[in-house]
Amino acid sequence: MKKKRIGIHELYAKDPIEADRLLWGRESDPASRRGFLKQAGLAAMSLALGSKIVHANEMPAGLIPTLLDQPQSDFELPGKHPDLVVLNDKPWNVETPAHLLDDVITPADKFFVRNNGLVPENIDVDTWELTIDGESIPEPITFSIAQLKELFKAYTYQLTIECGGNGRAEFNPPAKGNQWSTGAVACASWTGVRLKDVLEYCKVKSDAVYIGYYGKDLHLSRNPQKVTISRGVPIKKALEDETLIAWAMNGEDIPVLNGHPLRLVIGGWPASVSGKWLTRISVRNIIHDGSKMEAPSYRVPKYPVAPGETVKDEDMKIIESMPVKSLITYPKTGATVKKGQTIKLRGHAWAGDLAVKEMHISVDFGATWQKANLKPAPNRLAWQSWDASISLKEEGYYEVWAKATDEKGISQPMVVPGWNPKGYLNNATHRIALKVI
Amino acid sequence: MSKEEKELRKDELDLVQRIVKRMNVLVYASLFIVLVAMFNIMAPDTAERWFGETEKEALPEEVVAAISDDLIENGIHVKTGLIVDDGFNQVKATCLACHSAKLVTQNRADREGWKKMIRWMQETQNLWDLGQNEDIILDYLAKNYAPEDKGRRAPLKNIEWYTLED
Predict the structure, then answer these.
(1) Taking a C-beta distance cutoff of 8 angstroms, is the pair B96, B82 a contact?
(2) Taking the CB of residue A77, how many other CB atoms lie within 10 A of it?
(3) Dihedral sign computed on CA atoms, order A139, A145, A147, A153
(4) Residues A124, A256: one domain?
(5) For residues A17 and A30, what is the distance between their CA atoms, to the nearest angstrom?
(6) Are residues A144 and A223 in the same domain?
(7) Model confidence at B56: pLDDT above 50
């Protein structure tokens, strides 16, 4: 007898305009899709929010006020480790503490989340389609996931992806955006087809300059016309062997928060080029001009600037390969040890498109450095594991610093590197605290 | 009976009387429940029409929670984590229409910096013109979420010490 109680999300997912009417009695201007016609629903929504809605006549229709859209607790994130740190819950942005990145291959539950929009609902693997189009494709072609698996050989690679803004929290003056510390990086084992094989099948033309992806994530404003994020890479990077259209992470479905059922995985570059919930790849004869390709998103100044300086859009360049960086994943920061105790240290190091050549650690704030054992990568663009052991003879407070050097001889800086307006590319040495008693 | 015994007796009597009164309430309540249940069984359609939830009344739990959730602890609005100060209501109603409060609370900027963020949201993210509330919102943000000077590298913070075994 009793009607099924459905959640606010379900209502808005089904029909946002109807949800507005049902919940609040709200009618918006049908032409502008904004405001409250004859003030209908405004009082109800204001009551629920506990305050007046300022400029209500501008408020887009079909928008769940975020206050009503908060999760019950931080730990409701399906499939993610409870100790991951939630920086933002709309959109989801969640980072992994360094000690949880100890695995050589990052497990799905410890893989960070960096979303720009809302996770798509009602994903159907069987009807999911990927279209390849753009100026440099003679005839657009659409594939189902089954067709991709059937037509092309599958490859598996361990690929490191790191958010361009990883480390942003340390910049001074602060840069706006999610305040990542060190945990927006991971290296999982990805399975999919090579983008290069798919583009060749689609007879990509020689004038191709860039690829741009499109995904199914919904813009925060819930306006389906607005593209959340559509970035990409130059055609040269797109055609590398390791550039995958992937459907599996660590041999299983990719977690929904990380792009299930299909995503790009392009190792070594800002993770924002690895589009999630992939539905379309446009092969462009110009540098892709999708959402968040424009300055200042994922761009840094072309020349070093003073902290806090205003930089003109035309003086910003697109971030390509990520810089050399490393993490200490064991022990967890805050270890108390005995005098003379042998302390085993380990972690990973990576360097964008390059390999890491050497790894060093310091226990005296960078005055002297000890070489660590560094393993080769299982494949190109995968992070490399390192280990070392130390023993401290005197009581007191110590910090272990880790510094990687890439194959071109470039190392991590010990202080926060060049300030930039959006706070990208902080690859300062990772530090953990130790106490000898 | 001594005086004390009498008083004790009186207390006991009071207690019994109170229990009986409570029992009365319980009995009436039970009777009412039984009646409603019978009505539901015997005339389900009428019951649904009279007592059933109409679509309008069936507000999702989140909405109900939001209406009743205005708890403030140590000057922080518990549900959002925002500092309660002049302009709090305007920030809540404007900023949280689209994004999480965490995007406000984890960021730091001066007035000019916050203004740039608002302009960016207006140019690219469908944020509307804030009119006279812009100043109120900027005052709130610049005062409560101002930058701190961290130098070129801040000391390690929030360390939880533990014993690392051999």
Answers:
(1) no
(2) 19
(3) positive
(4) yes
(5) 10
(6) yes
(7) no
> By three-state DSSP, how is residue A144 classified?
strand
Which chain A residues in 40-69 lie under 8 Å from chain B, judged by CB atoms?
Answer: 46-55, 58-60, 63, 65-69
Contact state of A178 with B70 under an 8 Å Cβ cutoff: no
A241: contact with B, CB 8 A cutoff: no
pLDDT at B12 over 70: no
pLDDT digits (tens, 9 = 90+) for A137-184: 999 999 999 999 999 999 999 999 999 999 999 999 999 899 999 999
Distances (CA, A) of B125 to A34, A286, A379, A433: 15, 25, 39, 41
Give the DSSP letter string of A151-204. HS-EEEEEEEEE-TTTTGGG-SS--SS----S-SEEEEEEEEEEHHHHHHHTT-
Provide the pLDDT for residue A192.
Answer: 98
Does A189 share its domain with A122? yes
Residue at A93 is within a domain: no
Query: Do A117 and A220 touch, CB atoms closer than 8 A?
Result: yes
CA–CA gap between residue A114 and residue B133 (Å, rounded):
31
Regarding whether A270 and A135 lie in a shared domain, the answer is: yes
CA-CA distance, A293 to A237, in Å (whole number)?
16
| Average pLDDT value for residue range B118-140 | 92
Q: What is the mean pLDDT of residues B127-144?
A: 94
**pLDDT surpasses 80 at A357:** yes
Q: Which of A288, A158, A286, A236 is nearest to A275 (CA)?
A: A288
Mean pLDDT for A309-338 is 97
Task: Kindly determine whether residue A67 and residue B92, on different chains, have CB atoms separated by under 8 Å.
Answer: yes
Question: What local confidence, expressed as pLDDT, does residue B10 receive?
Answer: 67
Q: Which neighbouring-strand residues pair with A270?
A: A162
Q: Quick one: residue A18, left, alpha or beta (phi over 0 = left, psi -120 to 50 = alpha)? A: alpha
Both A329 and A293 in a single domain?
A: no
A333 to chain B: which residues are within 8 Å by CB?
156, 159
Distance CA A231, CA A211 (A): 8
Q: Using an 8 Å Cβ cutoff, are B76 and B83 in contact?
A: yes
Q: Calculate mean pLDDT across residues A192-219.
A: 97
* DSSP label at residue B78: T
Supply the range of the domain harboring residue A389: 325-436
- Asked if B79 has any chain A CB less than 8 Å from its own CB, the reply is yes
A241 shares its domain with A332? no
Question: Residue B57 has what pLDDT?
Answer: 47
Q: What is the pLDDT of residue A29?
A: 75
